[in-house]
Amino acid sequence: MEGPADGARPSSDASPASRASSLYPRAATVVDFEHNLAAVRGRIAAACRAVGRDPAEVRLLPVSKTVDEAHIRMAYAAGCRWLGENKVQEAHTKSQALADLADLRWSVIGHLQTNKAKLVARFASEFQALDSLRVAEALDRQLQSLGRALDVLVQVNSSGEASKYGLPPDEVPAFVRQLPAFGALRVRGLMTLAALSDDALRVRGCFALMRGLQQRLREDSPDGVEMRELSMGMSGDYALAVEEGATIVRVGQAIFGARATPDSEYWPPAP
């Protein structure tokens, strides 16, 4: 796996928080954000070159979960026009506080409960974690009432880990075939979180599985369903994801700096 300068997962010798802090210093100025964004885009371009892809095929989605308004404004000044958020209430609050930034768009990338569908329908430009028909129905109903449509990606559990949301890969084709019933949802592709592992082969295997699933669905998707997007890869593994075909990479700490909040806060509770 690539070294720390290339966004690698750090070694397990220290605590997750201390490892992240050493790899990802907190951005404190617009110049810091410009530097971090340029570094991430440079690694995306290098990964694309390695496999003969055009870097323009890959959208960088900065993930601003737990980041305060002042630092988001710095990121905006550095060029960020899309932001990803895990928690719906946090995202909605930020969208209201930053409403003066008229061209800032929000992508909800975390698990959604049906009672929060109304909020997502109001402000989001994209929802990347669709994994149930109940959520699809709730979102569609709210969007229809507002006269809106929403780009959505289907979340897939490519690692088989209980700590991850998403559909098992073999359930995705049948699920996708039911989505044209929800007219306000524009199905654009798939999303996944790879295995939380220092084993690059295991991580790459998750991404390769997703690429194969996307290709199969492209050949057998109902009318109105697109499979052009493949959202995968985060700060520790996005270069691998790009090499395996990612069209969206969700990068937080390599842009904003290390988070104090552990990723496990955003995962399902232990059974």
Would you mind describing this structure in some detail?
The chain is an alpha/beta fold and 271 residues long. The chain has one domain (14-260): Alanine racemase (TIM Barrel), CATH 3.20.20. The protein contains ten helices and eight strands. It has helices spanning 16-23, 30-51, 69-77, 88-97, 117-123, 133-146, 172-177, 200-219, 238-243, 253-256; strands spanning 59-62, 82-85, 105-108, 126-130, 150-156, 185-192, 229-231, 248-251. The protein has a six-stranded parallel β-sheet with strand order 2-3-4-5-6-7. It has a two-stranded parallel sheet with strand order 1-8. α5 crosses α6 (133-146). The radius of gyration is 18 Å and the shape is globular. It starts with 15 loop residues before the first helix and ends in a 15-residue tail after the last helix.
